[in-house]
Specification:
single chain; about 280 residues; alpha+beta; Phosphorylase Kinase, domain 1; 2 domains; 5-stranded antiparallel sheet; two-stranded antiparallel sheet; 10 helices
Length: about 280
């Protein structure tokens, strides 16, 4: 995976844009004064950008390392967010090129997520439970399994913490000033255990993204387990010190199951069989 580069302020009279990155949902343009614009492909995405900006601002105001948001602008008939440019490799890339950094990357991932969960979520963010519910409904599960997963979800707590929604080492940039969390379009307001459970799910069976280093794509289960162990140790240590209270193992396991059901909606072929096993066993248990 190439180094990730993220972004900054835009002026109305900026220069001709230079696209430096793109994904399924947005294009990233360098802009004036060493800044960048994250421009959505969806021409009707302004409300979504406003929610994303609110999440990032709440995190930053609480001391969590996040690119500063400088506004939402319209360019080429589409809306985009103007944010600080952040240069450096993401932690997934670091593991692939410097595997001896695995334990450090895991510790940083756990500590940062626990710091994030200390932040009260803005009221403008969507609730996490309804988001997961919609994904489960669209996951293609048999009707009985989908209904059981939704019942399990309904019995889980709402919560009011800031949840990233896609927290993993590929979304942490290792800058000269320190690690920084990026990619916030899935931010919600909910139970911290739910966000923690999704990260555990991604760490244990998530397929590496396209372009990930060869070493990352072929990490053995032993290395995955080592990373997940160190990540969880760091997360729990920070959380214990924060006053959020201990993680309830039973609640965490149920969040793990409903997150697996929701993940099926993302249609990642290499994960489907493993996710179905988690869901089927979790619903029976």
């Amino acid at each position: 995976m190439p180094h990730r580069r993220y972004h900054a302020r835009m002026t109305a009279a900026g220069p001709s844009p230079n696209k430096i990155a793109e994904g399924r949902e947005a294009e990233i343009f360098s802009w004036r004064d060493g800044t960048v614009l994250r421009l959505l492909r969806d021409p009707d995405g302004r409300a979504r950008l406003e929610r994303e900006a609110a999440a990032m601002q709440a995190a930053r105001e609480s001391g969590v390392p996040v690119p500063a948001v400088h506004g939402i602008e319209t360019a080429f008939g589409r809306d985009g967010m103007v944010i600080d440019r952040v240069d450096g490799p993401d932690l997934l890339t670091e593991i692939g090129t410097r595997p001896w950094q695995l334990l450090r990357a895991a510790r940083v991932t756990g500590d940062l997520q626990a710091r994030l969960h200390e932040v009260p979520a803005p009221a403008s963010l969507p609730g996490l439970r309804p988001v997961i519910g919609r994904r489960i409904a669209g996951a293609g599960l048999p009707a009985a399994a989908a209904a059981a997963a939704l019942r399990m979800l309904d019995a889980l707590p709402d919560g009011a913490r800031l949840c990233h929604g896609d927290f993993h080492p590929g979304n942490i940039i290792d800058t000269r000033a320190g690690p920084m969390i990026i990619d916030w379009p899935n931010a919600t307001r909910g139970d911290a255990d739910a966000d923690h459970a999704r990260t555990l799910l991604l760490l244990t069976l998530g397929e590496p993204p396209p372009g990930a280093p060869l070493l990352v794509r072929y990490l053995t289960d032993s290395f995955r387990k080592l990373f997940a162990w160190r990540y969880r140790r760091a997360y729990l240590a920070r959380r214990s010190a924060s006053g959020l209270g201990p993680v309830d193992a039973g609640v965490l396991q149920r969040w793990f199951v409903v997150n697996a059901a929701a993940r099926l909606a993302e249609g990642i072929d290499g994960e489907r069989a493993k996710l179905r096993t988690i869901v089927d066993r979790g619903l029976v248990g």
